[in-house]
């Protein structure tokens, strides 16, 4: 059980789990999920971790969209953002890249 599912159960928040067999050669996790689950890419969201070198920020958007780092930087009040290093994202969130949840994260 993931930390996100544990948190949802603890808070008694209704949820459902959607599972599929991941192709280890596929690096476009969200689009793979939408295809295998039969959902529109607008219904499947990705969680991205970005940083200004000092702090980390979380962005959640549909898998078919790209994150505009300039707009995100403006939204969080910093000059510039870059995508977090995948190993940093995994260490900070407690999830593996491709399965980072917006809830139940360790630190980020």
TrEMBL record:
Statement: the UniProt record of this protein carries the keyword Glycosyltransferase: no
Family annotation (Pfam families): tRNA_edit
An individual GO BP term: translation
GO molecular function: aminoacyl-tRNA deacylase activity; lyase activity
Segments forming domain YbaK/aminoacyl-tRNA synthetase-associated: 32-105
UniProt keyword annotations, A-Z: Lyase, Protein biosynthesis
Family classification: Belongs to the prolyl-tRNA editing family. YbaK/EbsC subfamily.
Protein name in the entry: Cys-tRNA(Pro)/Cys-tRNA(Cys) deacylase ybaK
Organism, scientific name: Moraxella caprae
């Amino acid at each position: 059980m993931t930390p996100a599912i544990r948190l949802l159960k603890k808070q008694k928040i209704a949820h459902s789990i959607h599972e599929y067999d991941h192709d280890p050669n596929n690096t476009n996790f969200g689009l793979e999920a939408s295809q295998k689950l039969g959902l529109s890419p607008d219904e499947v969201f990705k969680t991205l971790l970005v940083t200004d070198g000092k702090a980390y920020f979380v962005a959640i958007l549909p898998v078919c969209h790209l994150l505009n780092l300039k707009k995100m930087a403006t939204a969080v009040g910093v000059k510039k953002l870059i995508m977090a290093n995948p190993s940093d994202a995994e260490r900070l969130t407690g999830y593996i890249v491709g399965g980072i949840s917006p809830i139940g994260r360790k630190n980020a």
